Amino acid sequence: MNFYIGLDIGGTNIKSGVVLENRNILNDNINMCSSLANEDKNTILNNIFNIIENEFNSYNYGNLLGIGIGFPGPFDYEHGICKIKNINKYESIYNVNIKDEILNFINNSNIKNRIDKNFNILFENDATLFALGELEINQILKNNKCLAICIGTGCGSTYLENGKVIKNGKDIGENGWIYNIAFKDSIIDDYISARGIINFYNNISNIKVDNVKDISLKYNIDKNSNITFDNFGEDFANALNIVLKDFDAKNIIIGGQISKSYNLFKNTFIKNLKYNTNIYLSQDTSKSTLIGSMALFK
């Protein structure tokens, strides 16, 4: 069976896997290693090359149809050029054509002997790959309008209609993003994110925590944890109320690290959500993102 290689390149880690034509990840195996995002150009690129080569060598059948890569923005996804600067990550590959670099690597490796004639390398935002993967896993989501939200370090988003990604239109945010929409005294990203939860908890408890998991573990013994997740559920609903006013999504997909705590904020979220939508919780955000890397080629 022919196959794809998927990479989800983040600021801290890179997740990767072999995705078969039948939408399955080889052996359900998702690998993870450091992104080395603060290193020099050659170190970052060689790290990516090594990951691709290792994934390729893990599967000895069929041809490589393509490599789908999720990369944080700003990024020229059409041409594969990194545009990240001034955030202390990936600055050494600013304006580097990652696609050309990978193609050059492949042409000088044994990978070239087993690639499909229509082989290509495609790039997209990781939140979009997540959304595409969820649609592949749950085909019913390809009907009507859908909004995929991936909450972790920030609030990633993708608008979809009848299975197609929408990035422009009068009823959606620029590039399909909701993170920078005005909300309360700032923007959505400052509240619907891990740091939004952490900041709120630290402010009301006078206890400094560094991650959401620590707050969730206190849920049954610390009233401040309860208050924090209740507040987050209300904020999340009100943020979506702004978005859904213009984009009448019938389905909302929620993924990312914060979705693992959904049951802790579910009640206030549902209570404050004004629109009648179906809520789908991702079973595995990383898996969906890698499967989405294959869906790019459809």
What's a quick, concise take on this entry?
With 298 residues, this protein is α/β, with parallel strands linked by helices.
Q: Would you mind describing this structure in some detail?
A:
The chain is α/β, with parallel strands linked by helices. It folds into two domains: 3-124, Nucleotidyltransferase, domain 5 (2-Layer Sandwich); 139-288, 2-Layer Sandwich (Nucleotidyltransferase, domain 5). Helix content is 35%, strand content 23%. It is built from eight helices and 14 strands. It has helices at residues 41-57, 98-107, 126-137, 194-205, 212-217, 223-246, 262-272, 285-295, and strands at residues 3-9, 13-20, 31-34, 64-70, 75-76, 81-82, 115-124, 145-151, 155-161, 164-166, 182-183, 186-187, 251-255, 278-281. The strands form four sheets. Strands 3-2-1-4-7 form a five-stranded mixed sheet, sandwiched between helices. The chain has a five-stranded mixed sheet with strand order 10-9-8-13-14, covered by helices on one side. Strand 1 (3-9) and strand 2 form a beta hairpin. Helix 3 (126-137) crosses helix 8 (285-295), helix 4 (194-205) runs antiparallel to helix 6 and helix 6 (223-246) packs across helix 7. The longest helix has 24 residues, at 223-246.
**What is the string of helix and strand elements?**
EEEHEEEHEHEEEEEHHHEHEH
The outline comes out as globular
Structure summary, number of beta strands: 14
Can you tell me the CATH class of the largest domain?
A: Alpha Beta
